[in-house]
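Objective 1b of the project was to move from sequence-level analysis to a structural picture of ligand recognition. The entry below was assembled by the postdoctoral researcher (A.K.) and checked by the PI before modelling. It contains the amino acid sequence of the target and the SMILES of the bound compound, N-acetyl-L-glutamyl 5-phosphate.
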Amino acid sequence: MSQDAPSCFTANISPADRVQVLAEALPYIQRFAGKTIVVKYGGAAMVRENLRDLVIRDIVFLATVGIKPVVVHGGGPEINSWLERLNIPVQFVGGLRVTDKITMEVVEMVLAGKVNKSIVQMINQAGGSAVGLCGRDGSIIEARPHQSAQLQPDIGFVGDIQSVNPKLIQSLLKEGHIPVLSSVASDENGQAYNINADTAAGELAAALDAEKLILLTDTPGILLDKDHPRSLIRKLDIYQARKLIAEGVVDGGMIPKVQCCVRALAQGVRAAHIVDGRQMHALLLEVLTDQGIGSMLVASELV
Ligand SMILES: Nc1ncnc2c1ncn2[C@@H]1O[C@H](COP(=O)(O)OP(=O)(O)O)[C@@H](O)[C@H]1O
Ligand SMILES: CC(=O)N[C@@H](CCC(=O)OP(=O)(O)O)C(=O)O
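Corresponding predicted holo structure:
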């Protein structure tokens, strides 16, 4: 066994058990083969090296068995670190980065450049065929100023999504590539905008009529009490999700995640999942097991 072999093959399990594991995954592989799954890649799964390798391999695994993963990535911490190096202030309002002209340039260089290309390289090295894009490529995402920008003009070039044109992504999927998208987009005049990566993933999932939207993050999922990991809510529908936001149970960075799941579900995505990217093989556990992991949001509990 080579040193690079996936951990599930170097773990101390017998060949018979390995075959058993694959046999149990088969019904899920058959169920999702040919279906699109949008993965928001961020949080610890992107920052910690050991987890990064596993997530990348999981993505390549899904593509290899005929499922169509589309990766939308974040990179907030990487942007922060470059802004600090350049002595540019880092500021957030309501979870969104205040993005003036120079910050926008750094955001684009970091997200569409460094982060995007390093994910592409890792996927290719793991045996997949990744194509890196940002919202500007093929006019995939058209942006407009964030809706609160009129009220808070100094939030700068933060964008909302005006429209999504999924054609380029669909042709890449057809050819067996793994699209990797950063959430930089432009408006009709070519002005660049910085869009929250969760929001971009949700809208893209809707435009692609995806089977699943999976958001990898740094918590077990949606918690009833965010300080108690055991208070995980396993399944909820749009109405319950909205209620949790209104009651303040869901706050901070979890708000845009839950909101983008709700919007994706309302537009026809079959299920949205908020899962713990710190857990090894979180993606495969979500897609290829009955119980899944994390929180699953559906349009209606009755479905
Ligand atoms: N009800 C909740 N359940 C889980 N996390 C919550 C909840 N409410 C607020 N949060 C916060 O949301 C954070 C996740 O959002 P964020 O840090 O923006 O994630 P990412 O960096 O993966 O995009 C959690 O670390 C937690 O502090
Ligand atoms: C408007 C806005 O805040 N954009 C985000 C885009 C990147 C992102 O969303 O990255 P994470 O998923 O790692 O947080 C930012 O500038 O940080």
